[in-house]
Design goal:
By secondary structure, the protein is mainly beta. It has a single domain, classed as Beta Barrel (Porin). It has a 16-stranded antiparallel β-barrel. It has a two-stranded antiparallel ribbon with strand order 17-18. Strand 3 and strand 4 form a beta hairpin. This is Porin.
């Protein structure tokens, strides 16, 4: 499969795979080790009790460790696999306890270096859309991933997911399907997921312009007045003009609940980056507005993000970002957020 949009656009946004260390290699088999150490500090979120006030300055340490293999089965078929964990010094829960989570766990194959299929905890097909504007480490990319009544669209990684990708010429076609069972509850307190699927397509012109489209459908067993089947879709464009990158996405989300209740939003995101030597300067804007039965909420996301990163070594960088949140709650403006971090890949 081709690299992600930004991996080809900006050297400093390269994927982890590009930094993999080979631990075993012969004519048939190759095994790589990937990893990342990261520490971030700042005021990243808002107080749940006082949603206009940012939390106190604090820090968070993270680490990733994974392995991937490729076995040359025949002249036409390669067997593939990946397993990666993430370790968090402070997890996203009220107790703030440490955690060990699985990021990827899948097996698959590649045929003629064009058709690729994988099963397990894989990356969803719709990630091609969110990748267009996802250039920040701390903030950004919030409009397309904002939930509707507790259901998140365009989620990057899913368990029990079959993913298929096909590269042909300038086209990159992807599809994913999530198999659910009665023992796995949905993200909310009531009902079970029936199925979920997504498709995406990307076309890259000879002048390095990417056009992307993505569609996702989530179906559940039963509905309530505020929860039901959800459809999300969007289009995007990314333009690489060395040393600049410009990205934009535009889309809609719609949830059809019981008793003819409809919840929908319109979202769009803009991002730009400029690479100057070892430094990368970034700016972005995210917006989402409620429509139909959500219209009373008005604007749900309205923020500017600025950031800068500096490459200390080929596999290490420092970065800082600032988030200007323009939302008002009960007539009161929300505090700005900010943070900084250091990252080392191996």
């Amino acid at each position: 499969m081709k690299k992600l949009l930004l991996a080809t656009a900006l050297t400093m946004a390269a994927t982890q795979t590009a930094h993999a260390a080979t631990v075993f290699k012969n004519d048939e088999m190759r095994i790589d080790l990937t990893g990342k150490l990261q520490y971030e500090a700042g005021a990243f979120k808002y107080d749940k009790q006082s949603p206009t006030q940012r939390l106190n300055f604090g820090g968070d340490g993270k680490a990733r460790l994974g392995t991937q293999f490729r076995y040359h089965f025949t002249d036409e078929i390669d067997l593939l696999g990946k397993l990666e964990w993430q370790m968090n010094a402070e997890d996203e829960n009220d107790a703030k306890t440490d955690s060990l989570d699985v990021r990827y766990a899948w097996l698959g194959f590649r045929y003629m270096d064009q058709l690729e299929m994988a099963m397990g905890r894989t990356k969803s097909a719709t990630s091609q859309l969110s990748d267009v504007t996802d250039i920040f480490e701390l903030f950004g990319d919030t409009a397309n991933e904002n939930k509707i009544n507790g259901i998140k669209p365009f989620e990057s990684k899913k368990d029990d997911q079959l993913t298929i990708g096909y590269d042909i010429g300038n086209w990159d076609l992807r599809a994913s399907y999530v198999f659910e069972d009665e023992r796995r509850p949905r993200e909310t307190s009531a009902g079970d997921r029936d199925y979920q699927y997504g498709v995406s397509v990307r076309y890259t012109t000879d002048s390095e312009i990417d056009f992307v489209g993505a569609y996702e459908r989530q179906n559940f067993q039963g509905t309530t007045d505020t929860l039901g089947d959800m459809t999300s879709w969007g289009v995007g464009v990314g333009w690489r003009l060395d040393p600049f990158y410009f990205g934009a996405i535009n889309g809609y989300k719609r949830m059809d609940a019981a008793n003819d209740q409809t919840f929908s939003t319109h979202f769009y995101e803009l991002s730009a980056a400029y690479e100057l030597g070892k430094a990368l300067f970034m700016v972005g804007y995210n917006n989402e507005k409620g429509e139909d039965d959500l219209a009373y909420q008005g604007t749900r996301v309205d923020e500017y993000v600025i950031g800068v990163s500096y490459r200390l070594l080929p596999r290490a960088k420092v970065y800082a970002e600032y988030n200007v949140d323009r939302l008002q709650i009960d007539g009161q403006r929300r505090d700005d957020l900010y943070g900084m971090g250091v990252e080392v890949k191996f």
